Amino acid sequence: MSKRKICAVVTARPSYSRIKTALLAIKNHPELELQLVVAGSALLGRYGNAVDFIEKDGFVVDEKVFMVLEGENKTAMAKTTGLGVMELANVFYKLKPDAVITIADRFETIATSIAAAYQNIPLIHIQGGEVTGNIDEKVRHANTKLADIHLVASEEAKERVIKLGEEPDFVINTGCPSIDLAKEIKENPKLTFNPLEKYGGVGANVDWQNKGYIVVMQHPVTTEYEAAKEDVLKTLEAVTELDIPTFWFWPNVDAGADGTSNGIRTFREINKPQNIHFFKNMEPQDFLKLLVNSKCLIGNSSVGIRECSYLGVPVVNIGTRQNRRQRGNNVVDVSYDKEGIKEAILNQIENTKISSSTIYGDGASGQKMADVLSKIPLKFHKTITY
Amino acid sequence: MSKRKICAVVTARPSYSRIKTALLAIKNHPELELQLVVAGSALLGRYGNAVDFIEKDGFVVDEKVFMVLEGENKTAMAKTTGLGVMELANVFYKLKPDAVITIADRFETIATSIAAAYQNIPLIHIQGGEVTGNIDEKVRHANTKLADIHLVASEEAKERVIKLGEEPDFVINTGCPSIDLAKEIKENPKLTFNPLEKYGGVGANVDWQNKGYIVVMQHPVTTEYEAAKEDVLKTLEAVTELDIPTFWFWPNVDAGADGTSNGIRTFREINKPQNIHFFKNMEPQDFLKLLVNSKCLIGNSSVGIRECSYLGVPVVNIGTRQNRRQRGNNVVDVSYDKEGIKEAILNQIENTKISSSTIYGDGASGQKMADVLSKIPLKFHKTITY
Amino acid sequence: MSKRKICAVVTARPSYSRIKTALLAIKNHPELELQLVVAGSALLGRYGNAVDFIEKDGFVVDEKVFMVLEGENKTAMAKTTGLGVMELANVFYKLKPDAVITIADRFETIATSIAAAYQNIPLIHIQGGEVTGNIDEKVRHANTKLADIHLVASEEAKERVIKLGEEPDFVINTGCPSIDLAKEIKENPKLTFNPLEKYGGVGANVDWQNKGYIVVMQHPVTTEYEAAKEDVLKTLEAVTELDIPTFWFWPNVDAGADGTSNGIRTFREINKPQNIHFFKNMEPQDFLKLLVNSKCLIGNSSVGIRECSYLGVPVVNIGTRQNRRQRGNNVVDVSYDKEGIKEAILNQIENTKISSSTIYGDGASGQKMADVLSKIPLKFHKTITY
Amino acid sequence: MSKRKICAVVTARPSYSRIKTALLAIKNHPELELQLVVAGSALLGRYGNAVDFIEKDGFVVDEKVFMVLEGENKTAMAKTTGLGVMELANVFYKLKPDAVITIADRFETIATSIAAAYQNIPLIHIQGGEVTGNIDEKVRHANTKLADIHLVASEEAKERVIKLGEEPDFVINTGCPSIDLAKEIKENPKLTFNPLEKYGGVGANVDWQNKGYIVVMQHPVTTEYEAAKEDVLKTLEAVTELDIPTFWFWPNVDAGADGTSNGIRTFREINKPQNIHFFKNMEPQDFLKLLVNSKCLIGNSSVGIRECSYLGVPVVNIGTRQNRRQRGNNVVDVSYDKEGIKEAILNQIENTKISSSTIYGDGASGQKMADVLSKIPLKFHKTITY
Q1: Chain D contact present for B94, CB below 8 A
Q2: Alpha-carbon distances, residue A318 vs A231, A257, A352 (angstroms)
Q3: What is the pLDDT of residues D205-242, one digit of tens each?
Q4: In Å, how far is D70's CA from the nearest CA of chain A?
Q5: Where, by residue number, does the polypeptide cross the bilayer (chains A, B, C, D) (predicted)?
Q6: ipTM field
Q7: CATH 3.40.50.2000: does it fit domain C4-176+361-375?
Q8: Fewer beta carbons below 10 Å: N end or C end of chain B?
Q9: What one-character-per-residue DSSP string does A240-280 give?
């Protein structure tokens, strides 16, 4: 019997952490064959060269798809997506997969969905059914409506996808593979590397070993593009004033990337903050190890909502980006306000009541996904249930 | 006060009938300004040159977008859509509309949706909430999830869009503008032209004036691509054997176009049917006049479900294409079976119990749409209601 | 030692005949490896499905590139070329050839040239240095200036390429592989098939076996687009009036295709010429066999200039398309004039003075090309010689 | 009589200086109408936002074309060009110019050429007939073969274009509009602004006012991509060791951009050179003023060959990028060698024998161009002269 060919499309660094253990489980499953496509910003040095980590993890990349159009505006984002549809249509025509995986809700993930659905290839959507704001909210639910099989990360998400008119037999709560990685880290939390030495980066040579440290990761919020620069300045000022050793991570790509990045760059040149060190990128496991040993994560990354809930790391979540995503008790929400951010950080780094949560999975999601994909009927035809 | 700029994208001949009276009402509304984009197959002679009818109706076309990629396969359909996203992103960047209209569920309509949504332009989706099968089912509901405002054609559709998690205040049942055209015809049903003289076409010089006639319009069903040719042959054989004067309309473009078209072409060359005359295209009003004076419409066109329900024209609906679309009592469904088709036609042309229905509108939908669009808050940010 | 990977891109039916024996010789050469890309109209049924012939000849197609944009205008031609650059850039990135072959002067061949040259892949141009009119004139010489190695078809062409500033060591007169095919036919000229039975087609059931026949192949002339329909009508009228059994071949794709095709279609429907049978396509060998047994070839195909000079078949060459291409004594030139065409045909079918010519090669060009490609230094850097 | 619509496509910052006075003269000419398209890197902040300078100079930009694909490789360069063809085909379809101007030899300029030539729009090529190495050498001469009218910058260039088979009547030596700008500066050379204050930038606060300064501008050499980083390090080391106040300009975009940029960025972080200040961009006039007051220009910019020959500024030209471009006596050539660069700079800043040259024009080129374009027959059909 021939193996089912499962083709996954990874378009960005953070998406890789969301799927890595599932890719491993598919690759090793006796009834499955993995086809791996790396596309978009995952191929670009400016956004952390995810492809290098992927290959280092032992994966063979079947196709690399260059599709990111430059331009500091939303038009470029739309055109990147259109180009992605064209390129991925070619890729699927050539690879002839039995099913295609599209991951979550980044703007370009709909390109994967269209290229597969329009060629009558069964489409598997990972991490549907969640709620945020902005364009990713639209993209996620549109992906759900284009997909045939839904592997969701929580019970709440499962219910929501079913409410959207999907057949319950094809909506499975596998949890999120990112929790699998968090579990490994939780079981072995010792920080075995010096981040400054291993990853270089720029900025102050902070004394993290003696004083402890906080971590910041703040992405631009697409529909508030113009304000991206201003928003990030609030956090920069708050963190600078607190004067706690800080590891700050560069944002990943989308239309506002340059707004946020410019904010950071300008602030650095002018203020030369003495307590912040900046990284462009870090291997996912190292990043989690850094987090589990940190005093607090600040920003608007979904890692704070998801992995940190399992790890029990305190989080100060800023702004609307993670609105309505289900939270553990590790998260405190604040708005773009310097004093509010400072106060929340000071509270969170003293917070002793945070417990570990399994709302996003128990650490075996990747294997569950592979098992589902080896057995579930593959179809590309559906009608709404109501 | 400046007028709201409403940009509508028409991508195919049948879509134009679904929006024409709304375009007129927008154009004439004191608080609205119409921006008209004609794209895809609506620009191509092979698919009936819809653009010519549009300009003849007095509309100024602001942009023409050539985006149809050749290829007798579904890959081309996907790539056409990707190219559409890129091209329409440019168009909206340039026209800077206050809102964009995407129509119904053809595969390329999602290009309009993405190009608008990704640029934070409020998106209005016309005719969401219906149910069919195939790829258009996926496209329609994905359009709903990308759109901010929903102008639906029936109460059933309204309820379904709300169930999909859209805010009720932004889901309005305006009915379908195609019924507006049907109303005009119903009020003045006399056939004032000779179709053979006015539209040429090819095939037999049928005696429609003395014997009456039936009309056939059968489109390929996308996900049953390979079977498209076989399917149409069943109808060709049934109609040829019945020997009733027949006006047959060429299918519109999608991946299976050449399957269906080849079927028709081959059948013609070999069988030279003496009771069938073939047309490539007809002005929408003339087509409706032809229908209202016909004995029966055969095929799988949505015109049979929609306009004919209002007009009270008997319909033999073949196959799955209109599955689960709400029907009046004018429709009988049959499968791809020569004898079944013949029998259904014979029954329907004697059917005297057909009444007119307003399930898809009462003939004033275009004006209702324009009125809604002049007043409704325009936003591009939404979250699911549950 | 690893073999040199030579990647040839075939974009149209007529191009295949121009390269076929070279492809065979490359495939069979101990120091070469053939990579074959089939693209553009060579993949489309509407233009003769060249890909089917290619695969039937035993070639493995490494990549198929769908890139033809629909539209009855020159904008579509330009956009097809642009899309071709994007697609072929991907293909070469993936195949990593040691050299790329671009063939002659069709509009889309410059896409191959750019995709190779811009990625620093040595570019081999076949059949540069000739002279015609129209856009192909510009394309051919631009290809020459983008290419590193030039395999030309005649001494005159060689001199011209050198005059264009190319290094003489990289300009080799191999002759044209199409003459290799002609040689096979000349050595075994018997018409072993019935064209009507083998190729179907449409139109009159002409009595070619008893009365002999002429062959017509007329392509649109790109820069005289509007006149394409009118031009072809002159030939149709002339041939109809002569009433000699005629095999007429459909034109291949470019912007004017529909002008010429519409002309033919309209003329057929109205005039139903009783002496013309129309073919869409024919295997190259069969086509040459048909030619060598014909009384005369009419139209503007380069086959008349090239293969027919070797075969000694009389040709009536109409219009400007082959202007300034070197001719044997088998060609008579006429303009778009019904009476002139008629007179020329009548003269040519009686012409007994035609000899065979080797100006375009002696029948061993394919092998010569492979031998050159196995030895010549591969470079992608050049500067003009003056 | 209606004005001739002349459409110029500016794709990069340096191209703008090469055409600016011609654009002004066209705009002001009574028989011409300027259509201005800004495309590619000219729209991007990363490459100096040329579009801002263009609009500040009073030009109305008719279309903005986003077409730069990200990717640190040559595949992206090719795909950018393909996308450019598609986009510019649309633009010309819409603007319907009477003639299109393509400028010089950047890789994406061939997109302009194809989009115009394929739509039968007369194509004017500026600055053909020069000789360099690398991909721009191929692009320039391919542009020549696609163009109908040639406005060249020197007598040598004129002869070369004619040798390429172009009709002498359509090859006109107008000189280069960049010399027009140089002339203005030469007539009024006083440095009226403080570059550090007006343009910010990063790096050392050099004492240019008292000690004088040198200027560096080094671009990556495309076909030596891998070496781009290494090459620039030689210059950085040489200049750092000389310890003369230095204004260093960021390279403009092409495939190697990130190689060179990375080299500069890394060197800065590690070595923190105390005599170098880095600028991203400068208004052309200000840049020329900076040059005319400098001790020497170092690098491989064509400004050194062209404007500096007229201005009489000493130049140390590094590497092969300007190979075979005609030089005045202001240029000394060196290879990528630290000691060689140092020595050449020290010699040049003492050189007193440099004279002004008019080989690239006398300062009235823009007006000459406009005059030619108002009178010359516009055609899109040509054949090679031999």
Answers
A1: yes
A2: 9, 17, 21
A3: 999 999 999 999 998 875 556 678 889 999 999 999 99
A4: 5
A5: none
A6: 0.88
A7: yes
A8: N
A9: HHHT--EEEE----STTHHHHHHHHHHHHHHH--TTEEEES
